[in-house]
Structures are given as C-alpha cells and as structure tokens.
Design goal:
Layout lengths: L1 H18 L5 E2 L13 E2 L4 H4 L3 E4 L5 E3 L14 H18 L2 H17 L1 E3 L3 E3 L18 H18 L2 H11 L12 E2 L7 E2 L11 H17 L6 H21 L27 H17 L3 H12 L3 H17 L4
C-alpha cells in the first residue's frame, strides 16, 4: 500500500515538474541597502510556493506535512519553507501596503528570533525536527539554507522596526558558516575542497546545489543591508563567506555534469547513487539562481555552468534523465 502511495505521489510530482512550473520572477534591484523584493519574487499561493505547507499555527506560521518517505506523519515547523513564506508575505505587503501583511511578516520574523539556538562557540542556528532518510538524518539538523532564510527575514524586520535585536541575531547567524559540519557548523570546509554550504547537515557531506546558492543570497543581502560604515567586521565576514561560497560553486560544478544532465547533489554518503540526476524543475531553478548570482558576482566558470543548464534542457535529455531518476529512487527506497 505504501509503495502504491509512493508511486502515485511521484507520478503527481513528475506531472507538476514537467507541466506545472511557472516561470520565476526575478527582482530588479540587487544593490539597494534597504531590502525590498527578494532575488526571486515569491507569491503566497501555496500551490506555487510549497505544496508541503498544509496549515498554519495561531500566529500564522506555516506548518508542513512530512515527505512521502517519512514513516511518522506529523505537522511540523520547517524553517526553510517558513522563510520562503515570510518573504512571500513581505512581497504582498510591498504590493498592497496592507498593514496586516506587515504584521504577519513580523510575527514570522519573531518566530525565527524566538526559536534560535544560541551557542557560545558556533553562533545562532535553527534546527529542523523532521527526518531525512535519504541522507541518514534521524535527529534535528542544522542548515545553511535555514541560516540564509533567517538572515533575509530578520534583516527586513530590523529595517522595518529599527529593533536591533534582529540585526544582532543576524550577525550571530553568520558564525555557523565559518565552521565545518564536523565542528558544529553548516559548511564543508576541508583542505583541498572548495567551500560548500550545506542545505542538509548530516554526518557526511550532502552538497545540494540549490541550497548552497540560496545560502549565498542571504549572505549577499547581509552585505547590502549592513555596510562597512555600520559594522565593518560583520560586513567583511559576510563578504568573505560569500566569496568563498562563489569560488566553491565555481570549482565544483563540473563534478555535477552527467554529460547530458546535471546531478542533484555531490553527496559523499556511502551507498548513495552517484548518478542521481536533478528533476526538470530543479534544473530550471538552478538556471534562475545562476542568472541572479552572475548579476551580483560575475564568474566565467559559472557562466559555463549556466550554459549547461540551457544546453541540456531538451526533450530527449529529459526522457533519458527520468529513466535514470527512476532507478535512483528505487535504490533509495523512495518508490
């Protein structure tokens, strides 16, 4: 019965992946110190934003359902999608000037502030309490992607309210980027490897590409919103982390190349298939992210990476990719 449910879920996902993806809108202003639209303009529509958001708590904080391969079904707070929803609410406020949208956004910013874990050594971080079986994660986990979402949300809350508590929390949220996952951080920082920011912090590197790039967006927003004249040390730290992440992506993209498509990640987890292709929607998301990244950090290697996302996106390659994806999902017990 579970297998049938998984097959149906994946077929629906395939349908949405091929036919249901709307073109993502990009913001035009990526330099202003006062943060307005996020680099990708999110909408509040849950079907377009995140189908796993199925409910909200009394403060309007979104609640996710668990993914299909998680045995224990429950509603939970998923900090990545909470940040995405917060930015969508912020975009609604920018369009409408509706005060309730502003207050809703600030309640979500307060959720980040109130749920942060403070560590004397590795700064502020957030934990996601839902398993990720494909990465052998069964306990609450950290995420550079979450750090980035929290920074983007709380920087806007600080600018809206002038309450310094949000800014202070953002500064402390930079610290986990400076540590390797083996040291309690959210980065892969190992001699001879480019720096990579982890969407899913596990015992072994997972190196999921879109999470790394979204992490860079949060760091770049910090650089914009907190200039040197305001806080030289914090600005220079964010700038260094951003540069290291861009260099790390430029160094690693060729390892993602399957010759006809791109891999979903560069995980080192034992037994994880090394030829796991990304989906169509994911390939196009990476393309969008790279277009943004190249506007704020021109890089010849990343231009080549972008060219691959365009070259490979054709019907014959899509069919070949899904054949490969089917076998990978079977091996991971996701079908």
């Amino acid at each position: 019965m579970i297998s049938i449910k998984k097959y149906f879920f994946m077929l629906q996902k395939l349908k949405r992946d091929l036919f249901g993806r709307a073109k993502l809108e990009l913001c035009s202003d990526k330099k202003d110190a006062f943060l307005k639209e996020y680099y990708i303009v999110f909408e509040e529509d849950k079907k377009k934003l995140n189908r796993l958001i199925v409910d909200f708590d009394s403060e309007g904080i979104p609640l996710n359902t668990t993914y299909i391969d998680v045995e224990q079904k429950k509603l939970h707070y998923y900090p990545i999608s909470i940040g995405q929803y917060a930015l969508a609410v912020f975009h609604s406020w920018l369009r409408t000037n509706d005060l309730e949208k502003k207050y809703h956004f600030l309640r979500i910013a307060d959720w980040y502030y109130n749920t942060r874990v403070e560590d004397e050594n590795v700064g502020n971080f957030w934990l996601t309490d839902v398993p990720k079986p494909e990465y052998n994660i069964s306990t609450p986990w950290k995420s550079a992607f979450v750090q980035s979402r929290a920074i983007s949300v709380m920087l806007r809350a600080w600018q809206l309210t002038e309450n310094k508590k949000y800014l202070d929390a953002c500064k402390r949220a930079l610290v986990p980027f400076t540590f390797d996952i083996n040291e309690g951080g959210v980065a892969i920082r190992r001699e001879g490897e480019g720096v990579f920011y982890e969407e899913y912090v596990a015992k072994c590197p997972t190196r999921v590409v879109d999470g790394h790039i979204f992490s860079l967006f949060g760091l770049h927003e910090f650089i914009r919103a907190v200039p040197k004249k305001l806080d030289k040390e914090a600005n220079e730290l964010a700038a260094r982390l951003f540069r290291e992440g861009v260099v790390g992506l430029a160094k690693s993209w060729r390892q993602l190349d399957l010759g006809f498509w791109l891999k979903y990640s560069l995980t080192d987890i034992p037994g994880y298939p090394q030829n796991d292709p990304c989906t169509v929607g994911y390939l196009r998301l990476i393309r969008t992210q790279l277009k943004v990244l190249l506007q704020i950090a021109p890089n010849k290697e990343l231009e080549k990476f972008l060219d691959k996302t365009i070259e490979y996106d054709k019907f014959s390659n899509i069919i070949k990719m899904y054949r490969s994806k089917f076998h990978v999902l079977k091996k991971l017990n996701r079908l």
